[in-house]
Amino acid sequence: MMKTKKCLNEWNATIEALGHGKQTILIRKYGTALNEFLLYPTVSYAAKNNYLNSFKKEYQSFVEENALPKKESNKFEVKYFAKVEEVIEKPSQRIGYFNKYHIWTKNHVKSYLGSGKAHIWILRVYKLKNPVMAERSRALIFANLNENISLKDIEPVLSDEEFSKIVKEI
Q1: Which of 142, 147, 156 lies closest to 33, judged by CA?
Q2: Domains and CATH numbers, the chain
Q3: Which of 12, 84, 130, 160 could disulfide-pair with 35, CB 3.0 to 4.6 Å?
Q4: For residues 2 and 153, what is the distance between their CA atoms, to the nearest angstrom?
Q5: Is the dihedral of CA 9, 35, 3, 151 positive or negative?
Q6: pTM for this predicted structure
Q7: What is the per-residue pLDDT across 132-166, written as a single tens digit (0 to 9) for each?
Q8: Alpha carbon distance 12, 103 (integer Å)
């Protein structure tokens, strides 16, 4: 049985967008050597008064509903696992094409990237059979959970056909 404790820290609203098939990419300033990980929810962004301005208007109610994950003490609910299928490197000024594959505004992406390179991570996201409450080590990007999580019977969020169509478009 496959298990992992590796996780990527990410805004909960973005995780839920990935988990609901509303988003298939992450845009980063860096590539990754870790190609498989759990998606661990973070919440600090939701404490800002204007956090909704980082998201496209059509997704703001979804973001508001999913800003905060389920929490018990120091543990957050982990529901999804992701595999990086490919990383595409582009100048940050040349990523407008990818706007339809994420829920953020152009201004948010531009502000985040600055003038550096963009690394577009194409993710295949899977739903865990049973969500788990988990605690992680302190880390900014990747972290380890305090316990291994089973990946048995994970289900892809998008069908093979839907995912292949998106990858082909990209």
Answers
A1: 142
A2: 3-169 (2.30.130.30)
A3: 84
A4: 10
A5: positive
A6: 0.94
A7: 999 999 888 999 999 999 999 999 999 999 999 99
A8: 12
